[in-house]
Specification:
The chain is of the alpha/beta class and 491 residues long. Helices cover 50% and strands 12% of the residues. The strands form five sheets. It has a seven-stranded parallel beta sheet, with helices on both faces. It has a two-stranded parallel sheet with strand order 6-15. A two-stranded parallel ribbon has the order 8-10.
């Protein structure tokens, strides 16, 4: 593997990015436009009904974000002129053939000009409906591959997956591909066509029940996805359907150059375009936000376990370097992008930093009062969590139910609301347990080799940095990540 100038490679290239309004895709698009304004064209696939709606979503959900403030400062009133030349938002949907693009003239233009396809589109919801997750994460990946194969100048397909396709397997996880039919538990071989048929049969059964509601069908399809994932050894619908997507790409790629990127938990930007930008709550941030607001009295998880996190800008820099290194190389390469082997972060360090940050910078609630956080109480096993939760929440709810019945159900609304919240917490605890008690470490030999190649160009090494060993985790969480999350996400 060789690597020339990344900036030179990006010049005059045409790139298709799916899932363009998502967190990672926005960082990718901003980086390309900022460091290489001579890129020829970025086609950005946006879920929208038409070109006007796609442009509106691009402007409101991408350009208007703080993430683009450096570009705004650079171009000023000329920004829209620059963007109109370099960026074409495309209305589409990866769950359809030809990515759901209705304008055939545009399709032919894209097939003629595209050099690189970057597939970031996915549902990352652990608790997604199975039909939606399979459609997006598995068949969507297949549709993107089929579209890329029709691009006459195609040099590479980069597909963003997740490190957690490995499931709950402990120990060192290698950067190796999954093959069609692989199962983590040695069970029957999963087959995407069979899964698609099973989904259709399940939906037919659910819709046949005249008493079923949209809500009950959605819940049933969520449960069904977890059942199917568990059958083959995966803990949830998200990682199962992402693993199936990887298998399909590897099986059908032919001579297509393919890079599969497997990031771990992606957090706020480390340096660029500025430190601390993020959007949406990442896995650990839901806990941090609830704790800082005084709504969470404890953390669930093994304090000594390694929580593998990586800043979003580092992930994007790996993406760009990998595109350059593997263009026109007709094989499949896997990259783990994380920190657990090179700069491991213990879960207790996040707990400590959350306490230290909110002790120094208390949250101000809607009544204008400071929220004083307690020392973090750690429930380091599921049995301790169940005991704590039953004592503090389930038993009081049962007592409240008895009182409500005695008062002729006068507090039905309050009771149902409390019950719903408790059931939600229990479901989230079940979904996140594999990650807060994780014993997995993600080998990143390929990523290290790529970093070494980037370092050889000393100028570009400062532009496309992604070495997690440079991160001081205490400084990052205290001065970058948590302040960034408070500013950009916590409401």
């Amino acid at each position: 593997m060789e690597l020339g100038s990344i900036l030179n490679f990006l010049g005059n290239k045409t790139i298709l990015v799916t899932g363009a309004t998502g967190f990672l895709a926005k960082i990718f698009v901003e980086k390309i436009l900022r460091v290489q304004p001579n890129v020829k064209k970025l086609y950005l696939l946006v879920r929208a009904t038409d070109a006007k709606s796609a442009m509106h979503r691009f402007n409101t959900q991408v350009v208007e974000k703080d993430l683009f403030k450096i570009l705004k400062e650079k171009y000023g009133t000329n920004l829209q002129s620059f963007l109109s030349e370099k960026v074409t938002p495309v209305a589409g949907d990866i769950t359809y053939e030809n990515l759901g693009i209705k304008d055939y003239n545009l399709i032919e233009e894209m097939w003629k000009n595209i050099d690189i396809v970057v597939n970031v589109a996915a549902t990352t919801n652990f608790d997604e409906r199975y039909d939606i997750a399979l459609s997006l994460n598995t068949f969507g990946a297949k549709n993107v591959l089929n579209f890329a194969a029709k691009c006459i100048k195609i040099k590479l397909l980069l597909h963003v997956s997740t490190a957690y396709v490995s499931g709950e397997k402990p120990g060192l996880i290698l950067e190796t591909p999954y093959r069609l039919g692989d199962a983590l538990n040695g069970a029957d071989r999963p087959d995407i066509n069979t899964e698609e048929k099973i989904i259709k049969d399940k939906l037919k059964e659910l819709n046949y029940d005249k008493t079923a509601t949209d809500k009950s069908i959605t819940l049933a399809m969520k449960d069904f996805g977890i059942q199917r994932a568990n059958k083959f050894g995966w803990p949830n619908t998200y990682v199962f359907t992402k693993a199936l997507g990887e298998m399909v790409l590897g099986h059908l790629k032919g001579d297509m150059p393919l890079v599969i990127l497997r990031p771990t938990i992606i957090t706020s930007t480390y340096k660029e375009p500025f430190p601390g930008w993020m959007e949406g709550l990442r896995t650990v941030d839901s806990l941090i936000a609830s704790y800082g607001k005084g709504k969470l009295a404890c953390f669930l998880g093994d304090p000594e376990s390694i929580l593998d996190v990586v800043p979003g800008d580092m992930v994007v820099n790996v993406m760009i370097a990998a595109i350059t290194a593997h263009a026109n190389q007709p094989y499949e390469t896997i990259y783990h992008v994380g920190s657990s082997t090179s700069n491991p972060l213990k879960y207790k360090e996040i707990q400590k930093n959350a306490y230290n940050y909110f002790s120094k910078h208390p949250w101000i609630n809607k009544d204008g009062k400071l929220v004083i956080v307690p020392q973090v109480k750690v429930l380091n096993s599921m049995s301790s969590f169940n005991r704590y939760f039953n004592l503090h929440y389930v038993l009081p709810l049962q007592a409240f139910q008895v009182m409500n019945m005695a008062l002729c159900h006068a507090f039905n609304g309050t009771y149902e609301n409390l019950k719903r919240k408790i059931n939600l917490v229990l479901r989230l605890a079940e979904l996140y347990t594999p990650y807060v008690f994780s014993k997995s470490f993600y080998d990143d030999i390929n990523t290290q080799k790529l970093h070494q190649l980037v370092r050889e160009n000393k100028v570009e090494a400062n532009i496309f940095y992604f070495d997690p060993k440079t991160i001081d985790w205490d400084d990052y969480f205290m001065n970058i990540h948590i302040p960034g999350a408070v500013k950009h996400v916590f409401k």
